[in-house]
Amino acid sequence: MKHLQTYWNLFIGRSNDFAQQHQDGGYFRVGRALSMTDLAQHLDGRQTLGSYLINERGRCRCAVFDADNPNGLQVLRQVQTTLTHQAIPAYLERSRRGGHLWVFFAEPVPASQVRAWLLPSCPSGVEFYPKQVEGAGYGSLIRLPLGVHLRSGKRYPFVEWHERGPVAVARSVQETLAWLTSIQRVHVPTLPEARARAPRTQETSFSNFRQTSISTLPQTIRSWCATQNPYQVITRYVDLNSQGVGACPFRWHHAGGQDAHASFKVYTPGTPGGYCWYCYTWQRGGSVFDFLRYWHAIEPREMWKRIQRGEIHP
What we know:
- This protein is of the alpha+beta class.
- It is about 25% helix and about 20% strand.
- The strands form four sheets. Strands 7-4-6-5-11-12 form a six-stranded antiparallel sheet. Strands 2-1-3-8 form a four-stranded antiparallel sheet, covered by helices on one side.
- Strand 5 and strand 6 (about 100-110) form a beta hairpin.
- The chain is globular.
């Protein structure tokens, strides 16, 4: 199929695995490398696929703002306008429950660099992908564009905003694939430049924490936790709003493998190095150390050894 390579270069993150959609809208991991034939069948409507944005090297080709609500497309239009004023091209796509806003990169870049740069532009109530940083496994999945959503039976187009509202950029999949060749890709700023734009919410609440180097690493887990800023650490892995609330990342403890009610909260510890997060659905919380050991699925003793060796950084 013509322009298939362009589609691959824009949307495909991890190539050694992908996911396929069930009729109920859920996805299952296929467990093998993606092929051009798989993509062609996706675009032909014979199957519907999802891709993991973070590739095998922890890098991303793109980022996505995802608004799943009735006015999602309008919200993303506002984000698109904000990004345009910063000379960042972004592209709107309808979805079953709202919309997606895509930003494409000139070359694959580390997920942490992407999050430091674009996450400050993500409004409350909108999900941002990549949700994780490099080193966090496969990361989150997103539906590949232009396929048939098996729950609704519809394809959802890329759109441009006109006076009368959003209008599809093309009338068919083939015409949309040709339109994709006009996509502009942006150079992502280096991590120090990106962090300079980091959101300043909760700075007052979490201003008493100081970072520490490996050479001055505290001798106990609690004293180490006391040097960490819970919000700054956890927001690298979880999208949090200005109140420190977001979807629980430990999805295996939630029905259907997804926290649908944003039951995870980060807060200032009552005592230095103490508990700073809690999941109301799971009814469990912990310290920064506990969060990282659950995230990496490592036993406490081994986790502390890795931190001391500098192999895991908050």
